[in-house]
């Protein structure tokens, strides 16, 4: 938590010699400066916020801060001393970091005692002279705004640097610019965002686009636009203006994208559009025809259409290779079946003749387990053979066709 303090002081007051007409401050770790006007003080604060990517909000303020009233009522102003220079505090304003106050720190700091502090008798004597001159209107004081800025290391418990810019609210300067652009006729948020980005790049080129203070989100821009439009059009006329501006923006985008507006060609609306399959996965009917999906009209509906393929395009090489694979699988299955049957019979006879009852049961369980594994292997091979047979039948009945040789029967 950090704070920024500004005081509206009237300093110094001429008591004896002109050399007292010099501002003297006690320099600490914070940056302290004096400005003749309130606008210059707040401009320096804004520059500090932009340079350090921070933001301050009002925490405490007195009623008379910023009011340049006459110092004719000495009873309501207390006279302070700073290195033998008297001054009157006309107001005070304390601003805290917008991330919140750090309540774990001390609420207040004790005043530091200095050796140069004048004695009490001298203070009372000069105060009496000062009050008399103020009451008579003959005072040589000048008004100053004392600005005290913290260091960047004083910020705690929140991100600092470029990351801190992601959580900053929109700047008041951009809010005024939004009102100005609305007066010029900009009513849609995308155009407003584009104008704001151009304004920031022109006036504040050093600010990064990640800083939400000068590059706000589209939702923030819309909220401030709606607020400004409601103030400008209290009867609700801004809704029609916003709608018309959006329609003009969309039409301009379409023109920029296409160059010229083109009418839709309706000559091919009722034509049949066929999209060839990306991979060969035929669905064969019993009569040798094949079902294939295709598009009809300009809609996205799918319909089944019968596709008849000429027989002269059958690939004989594919048919021969599939037949050879099927024959090899059949030979392997038959040989495996005979070998398993012979080995199973021989093992059963030897176990029954030479082993007792417990050994016979154990061996019988092992034989059943082996038979189960053999059955699974045989089923897998039979499934592969059936798949190859289906492929062979499909190749004999249907040709492999290309995109340009597709014939449809309606």
Automatic annotation (TrEMBL):
What is the superkingdom listed in this entry's lineage?
Answer: Eukaryota
The entry's protein name is Uncharacterized protein
Q: Where is this region: Disordered?
A: 105-125, 232-286
Mark out the compositionally biased spans (Polar residues): 268-286
